[in-house]
Amino acid sequence: MAENAIAQIETKLAVPLTFQPTNQVLHYDATGFENLRWGEPVIAETRFGPQIGWVRRTPFQVPKTEIVTYRLIRRADAEDIRRYYQLRDKARRDMEFVRQKVREHDLPMRLLEAEYPLDENQLVVYFAAEGRVDFRALVADLKRCFPKRVMLFQIGARDAIRTIGAIGPCGRPSCCSLFLRRFESVTMKMAKEQLLDLNPSRLLGACGKLKCCLRYEHELYCEALRCMPKIGQWVQTPKGRGQVTDLNVLLMKVTVALEEGGYSVWHVSEVSPLETSPACPFCFLNGHEVKE
């Protein structure tokens, strides 16, 4: 059934574009643009107007549901690039004017970035806030004293870090600002199932949310843990009976408090639960098979 479902998914040739300043990645229909190369600038339609996006990789097949309805317009030339950077500098200068107005209205808004589309029909300002902000008075004030239409666009905590960038505890730029295209759910249960220290200072990212990387190895940990005895479970070891006190999932080793005293560390293939457990595919790593 699953194979049939996969076969029925319709795909189409698409090209992913990265847009600044939010580092957002969108897939566009690549019809007529099949020979685009990585890093090439392309003018494309967006919800705010025409803008330059950079090719993230050469066109490839993706499900049609992931392709946006906007279309590619043409390749960007040197004049387009020059205008793009001029508008970017202008947007940042104009954002300071908007920031001053935010202070005057005493609104709990943190302005992050701003941009003008290539047609310069509006100034788009991205901001972050703890909750919903009533900025109707601010918009009315800007309409009176600013020559362009100003669109205030609130983004979430994770999108805010993707926009401004951050350095993770690993010493590398945050995943969201480098390669993550969409944010998937990350829960505290994932941290528990990976036997991590449930210390918020270690589990939270720069955005104040659970780190996205908690999801990367979660599936592997779940698969491995199904083949390992649980902490507190009694097992039989080459040195006698004992109770599991710790697990090293990556090395597939267990620490056992022996019934006769002392601790010992064993590969999972060298211990057998005193209760029935499923066969473990990882137990063949050392050439030993756990018998049910």
Describe this structure in words.
Helices cover 25% and strands 26% of the residues. The chain has 292 residues and is of the alpha+beta class. The protein has four domains: 2-76, no CATH class; 82-155, GMP Synthetase, Chain A, domain 3 (2-Layer Sandwich); 161-216, no CATH class; 226-284, Roll (SH3 type barrels), CATH 2.30.30.140. Strands 1, 2, 3, 4, 5 and 6 form a six-stranded antiparallel beta sheet that branches. The radius of gyration is 27 Å and the shape is elongated.
Q: Helical stretch count?
A: 8
Secondary structure tally: strands: 14
| Mean pLDDT across every amino acid position | 85
Low-confidence residue ranges: 281-292
Structural class: alpha+beta
For the record, give the distance between the C-alpha atoms at the N and C termini, rounded to a whole number. Answer: 31 Å
The string of secondary-structure elements, in order, is: HEEEEEEHEEHEHHHHHEEEEE
